[in-house]
Amino acid sequence: MRTGKGSGEGSAELLIEGVAKRFGEVAALDHVSLSVAQGELLTILGPSGSGKTTLLKVVAGFETPDAGRVLVGGADITALLPARRDIGMVFQNYALFPHLSVKANVAFPLEMRNIARAEIDRRVGEALAMVELAGYEARLPKQLSGGQQQRVALARAIVFNPRLLLLDEPFGALDRKLRETMQLEVRRLQRRLGLTTIFITHDQEEALVLSDRIAVMNKGTIQQIATTTEIYERPANDFVADFVGESNILHGTVSAPGLVALPDGRKLMVDSEAAPGAKVGLLMRPERFSGGGLNEFSGEIVEAVYLGTSFKLRIACEGGPELLVRQPARGTLPAAGTKITVGIDPEAIHVF
Amino acid sequence: MTTRAWPALPALILLLVFFLFPVVRMLGFSLEGGTFDWYAKALGEGLYLRVFWNTFEIALLVTVFCLLLGYPLGFLMATTTPGWATLGFIFVLLPLWTSVLVRTYAWMVLLGRNGVFNRLLMEAGLTTDPIPLLHNFTGVLIGMVHVLLPYMVLPIYGAVRRIDPAIPAAAAGLGASGGRIFWRIYLPLTLNGIFAGSVLVFVLSLGFFITPALLGGGRVMMIAVLIEQQVREALNWPFAAALSAVLLVATFAIYALAQRFSQPETTR
Amino acid sequence: MDIQRPHRRRVLSLLGGAAAVGVSGRAFAQTDSSRAEPPKPAQIVVNHSGGSMGSAMRKAFFNGFEKKYGIRVVETSPVDFGKLRAMVDSGNVEWDLTEIGGQDAIRASKMNLLDKIDPKVVDRSKYPPTAQNPHVFASSVYTTIIGYRTDVFKGGTHPKSWADWWDVKKFPGARSMRNHPTDNLEFALIADGVPKDKVYPIDFDRAFKKLDQVKPHVTAWWSTGQQPAQLLLDKEVVLATGWNGRFYDVIKKGGPIEIEWNEGALKQGSFAIPRGAKNPYWANKMLAELAIPQQQAVYASELGYPGLNLESLNFVDAKVKPYLPTAYLDKQFWISDEWYAENGTKAAELWNAWMLKKA
């Protein structure tokens, strides 16, 4: 596991240490450790079944770990009931109280803290203004649109100034356009309030847009935890490379310094100090190819798709791998069967 | 009728032929000779008013006890593991599969002067004389609650099951204690089930008669017993019909009233 | 299921039948095999109250009938007066023969719902004059008497009259009585000093006043036939009124119960042929079967309910005989179905009101 720069161990607001959880034979969490800095937004990214939801439940207090500790602000909260943790959470389906008005939903955490009525009214008003829902106080959740419901859930999760905000795939139920608006809004709000936040998603695009750092999870372990650019440009392994963004992944052996031999005999120039004889993986992002370069591939277009700003081409190379290539959309979309040559420079190839 | 309603036709015909028609027929009987004399008798004589009142009183008490016992049971069954839930279902439904006589005699064995309960109490030194649990109001209440409990448990079970588990979890995360989660979240969201169960139990209670006759030692009189007497023994069908009609109208009135005061809530 | 049984078994005292006796008796002498028999149907339908009574009837009567005539006997239940009336009114009579309660039999005769019994086929010459109603066949006798626990009342120390029953000082202990005016009104009057042949017409005020005295000592008012014996067995009560057959059943099995026959309330079980029955001749033939004393003895030994052919006592085992009400006819009295046919509704209303009265 790599730890990215700027993780700021010293100012860690949330610290997870060696947390493990088994469900029967399955290890949902296999001794996971990570830290989140004050005011940071960390995304936990992984496919379903990777353990990300279990990790969130452990933090929120809905699951008790078999081993390990959870610390918030230096205090061990592992054994604390959810109600005592002071953590705001937005659920996948928002989990709004269907029988309570918008106002009563947002006031709920404050009432549970026995705050005076006037203070509650003031803070609920502020929170609703913050999510731009002033005037909707009396409505029931079912009278709101999906986006509005989510704003209520968000207001309810932040109104009591929680130490931590947890977002469990909150945008999954929204249509694309609304999702993008909400993502930016959540990000804006999180920054403004300086809320330490964990965001769970299986959508890598969303993760890249929102996060300070991303932790990629698979099979109960963290594969890599790093800044967004690092995750994208320098993935730690096949899984991360494949899961985050579109990619071409090849494997080969270093034959000489700066040279990797592929199984088909082709040799690629790379920017790497790996010693000769080492087995390495090569990641080439589709958009890093151009019409020519130090490493050239010739082949036949198998499939061509128009994507508005770019063409996406699938190229079967002669006697070699199939490549996914993106080119700026200029002229007409090349037909399948067209011969083509593309190239990539050594520094655009990530060796791992 | 729209085409979508056609599949419901057999059920509608069934209701019409076997329910609506007999009810109308019964109302016709009660007005035999074009007078309201039988209604005047049903509503004017102390005996019948007393028995009507008794009947509603018993039905209400049975409903309250079924609710007090049935809510925790339905709630547990809805929130426990499937294995325990199945076991719960078997125990709850068992009385429905047992003949009313077997059930009633089982209670006689348990509740009698020399029954299991009294012997245990006496051996434990908690009482010197047997406590009268049978052949009185207590016996009827126990027997009826036992039989009618499933009708309360099942709707409540259903109502709890319909609640998205994230909702109580959210409440806990927002700082609510177990008690507050119950009062603020579960209770309002299961009002539907409570209402449905209560109406079922109440209405079914009104028609009971074998259980009160056997476990009540004859002391607990319900209107169904009097109606049966009029039908089978006195052969006074017009009067029986008038009594039935009064019961029917009173039941509808109570139902309407109850619905007004409950605010059924839809959960997602 | 058994709840309506009591009313069905109520009896006729059939004063009017007496006049007809001589006639029908003599008519029987010329019964014939010469007369042409109607063709045999495949089956006849007999409706009765079912249960143990049904199985005893099959053993005592139906099996023999099937063998003798090759006609299958189909049994249905329960006994339902409303249904009988509906059948006859609509002309679609399913039953060839049906059991019928005492008051109902009287009402049914008045409403012309019953066929006359054919004296040429059914021999009732050995029947007491009170059991010769032209429309109603008296099939068996039963009685409501005192049952008591033998371990509580040893060596003849049990109550022997209704006056004793009311004497809670001399005979302490919980009692059970039927939740019904019939029997109890009569018992109260007898306990209050009315001779047992002078209870009708019943003086309601006097009867209920007397019942007031015993009410606090009655722990359970029973409504089904099996309750009294059960209440005694469970020691819920030490004294219970009940039907003789139910006590007999427990005594036969060695239960700690005995019967006091004195001042018991006699009733008769009846059968009748619905007007418009499909096979009236064969229904009469079935009644003739029910009248055979040997078969009645089989039935009586089974249930403790003897037939009214008084000769049947001669065919009963000596051990069974003491448990048959027909052995004690003089000590007992007959319930008047005619009085109840007139006053039953009023009695029931007064009874209900009395039951609801506190304390």
Description:
The complex is a heterotrimer of chains A (352), B (268) and C (359). Chain A has two domains: 233 residues, 3-Layer(aba) Sandwich (Rossmann fold), CATH 3.40.50; 106 residues, Beta Barrel (OB fold (Dihydrolipoamide Acetyltransferase, E2P)). In chain A, 24% of the residues lie in helices and 34% in strands. Chain A has eight helices and 19 strands. Chain A has a six-stranded mixed sheet with strand order 6-7-8-3-9-10, with helices on both faces. Chain A has a five-stranded antiparallel sheet with strand order 13-12-11-14-19. The radius of gyration of chain A is 24 Å and the shape is elongated. Chain B is mainly α. Chain B has one domain: MetI-like (MetI-like fold). Chain B is 76% helix and 0% strand. The longest helix of chain B has 34 residues. The C terminus of chain B is likely disordered. With 359 residues, chain C is an alpha/beta fold. Chain C has two domains: 204 residues, Periplasmic binding protein-like II (D-Maltodextrin-Binding Protein, domain 2); 141 residues, Periplasmic binding protein-like II (D-Maltodextrin-Binding Protein, domain 2, 3-Layer(aba) Sandwich), CATH 3.40.190. Chain C is built from 13 helices and nine strands. In chain C, helix 3 runs antiparallel to helix 12, helix 5 crosses helix 13 and helix 7 packs across helix 8. Chain C is globular, with a radius of gyration of 21 Å. Chains B and C meet through helix 3, helix 5, helix 11 and helix 12 of B and strand 6 and helix 13 of C.
